[in-house]
Specification:
The chain is an all-beta fold. The protein has no helices and 11 strands. It has strands at 2-6, 9-11, 17-24, 32-38, 45-51, 57-59, 67-72, 77-82, 91-98, 109-112, 116-120. A hairpin with a 5-residue loop joins strand 5 and strand 6 (57-59).
Amino acid sequence: VQLVESGGGSAQTGGSLRLSCVLSGYTSTRYWVAWFRQAPGKGREGVAAIHLEDGTTYYIPSVKDRFTLSRVNRKNTVYLQMDNVQSEDTAMYYCAAGLPQNAVEPSGYTYWGQGTQVTVS
C-alpha cells in the first residue's frame, strides 16, 4: 500500500486547509486511515482516524470541533478538512493506514506517506 499526501501549505490563524491522502496498491476496507502530525522537536501525535468500511471516526479533543475526516472509497482517498486552524496546528502531517488497536497510536499503522507541511501564522 502506498500513500501520498497533498494539500498542505500556509494559512492564517482561523483559516482553512484541506489535506488529501490517496491510497494505492492493495487497500482493504478493513483498514483505518489516520492523520498524524509532528512539530519540530516534538513527537508524532495522532490527530484523527477513519475506518474505511463504515466511516467511524475518531478525533483527539484539541481538533474535534475544528477538523473533519471524510473518505471516498471509489477514489481511495481520505480527506482532512481543517477549519479554524491555530498556530499549534503547525506541523508536518502524515497519513497512515493499518489495523490498529488504538486509532491514533502510531505503532498500530503499517503504511505511511511522506508527509505534507502545514504552517499557520
